[in-house]
Amino acid sequence: MIKFEYFLFENFDADEESQNPNNPRNLLGQETDAILSLIAQKPANTCIYSDCSDKSNAFLVQKLIDGGILRLNGKTLNFDCPVFLREDAAVLHEAIAEKATVLVDLLESRITEIRICCSQIQNGFSIEQNLYHILCGMVFDGHFFDYLGAKGALTTSRHHPSGLDYLSVIYEKCDELQTLSDGLLCSYNRLVNDTCSLQSFGDANGNRFDFYRFFRLMERGNIPAELKDAEAILHENYGGANKDALLSEVLSLIQTGRCAPAAMNLLERFGYVQNGNICVPIYTPEDQKYIMEIEGIIEKCLGEAMSGTLNDLASSIDITAVKHGVDQLEIANELYHILFGLVNEELVLRGTVATPPHIPGEGRYFKCIEVYR
Fold first, then answer.
1. 8 Å CB contact between 154 and 311
2. Model's pTM, two decimal places?
């Protein structure tokens, strides 16, 4: 049986929907591996529904269809979301790595202009570290993503019968694909509301020690021993995983230099505060004009090239998702993640942005805070 890794891009509040039975995080896992394996091991359009569904798993198969993981075509089952298998790895590496280098060369032609713009942000951190958060994270995994969506180069949304809006991506667990799924700098973790965000950006090669993951573990009742003390603090002071209460204290600390001792304890515990002072970059509403100027430069520099690259790859690359007739714009979404992840790796290699530290068991990442008002 093939083992899979499941990635979700949610356009819903993960905290509010944590107990929703239609939340795909409550569906995807080991039980679905067996069903997906049967389909993965056969050519597209040849897996008969009755071969995958019996009395014991018919309900789960239907949930996978309703959730946009599988698609029923007459009597056959195909994948209905981007699925990447071991045999896709060589094609993906070869096709996308070459494209990424070309894009970085284009970007480097505007790097002086980008650095001048970034230098206007005075938060006590180097241009390279600020560019890591702004360029690699906020632009490539945020504003530029939205720009490409508006241009019709990819989709960032899929509404499901459940009423939830999300995209699903599935990778076979194997060394050949690991560097494209977990190993690239293309993963945002953000505990966010409308006032501010505690976030980290890096790869997914480990269990990152940040608030987003901590809150997800609390939802599942799966807190490891080393985080039991943090869980106790949240329960005793905020009644549990209350992100608004915690983020309110973060905003107070930024604006007044003070917050509740319990919040300070947690922020120290998770590495956002050291010796009572915030020790990660803070990006304020005043910084947004410079961030958007950088975004504008990237649009002019890479917009057409990136759109054309994604269209070519998603329509013609010889991979499982294309063979199964998965929506081209959903394929483009994940290919964009791989592409900008490889771009980010090249920017790190060239010293254009700071190099995130590798923390054993957690992967590579930097943390920061964004304030929205």
1. no
2. 0.87
Token pair in block for residue 136? 């690699």
Tell me how far apart the alpha carbons of residues 149 and 326 are, in angstroms, rounded to a whole number.
17
Joined together, the tokens standing for residue 161 give 């019968």
Alpha carbons 89 and 57: distance in angstroms, whole number: 30
Spatial neighbors of 151 by CB under 8 A, at least 6 apart, are: 303, 307
Please name which of 354, 367, 189, 204 lies closest in space to residue 271, comparing C-alpha atoms: 367
- CA distance readout (Å), 74 to 17, 46, 47, 78, 83: 33, 11, 11, 11, 21
pLDDT at 142 over 80: yes
**CA–CA gap between residue 320 and residue 312 (Å, rounded):** 16
What's residue 307's pLDDT? 95
Cα 334 to Cα 8, 93, 171: the distances in Å are 11, 14, 11
Task: Tell me the DSSP string of 25-47.
Answer: GGT-SHHHHHHHHHHHTS-TT--
CB 193 within 8 A of CB 353: no
Tokens 């993951």 found at: 213
Run of H or E residues at 314 = helix 288-316
Q: 89-108 and 288-316 helices cross at what angle (nearest 10)?
A: 140
Least confident residue range of 14-28, 30-44, 232-246 = 14-28
> How high is the pLDDT of residue 19?
83
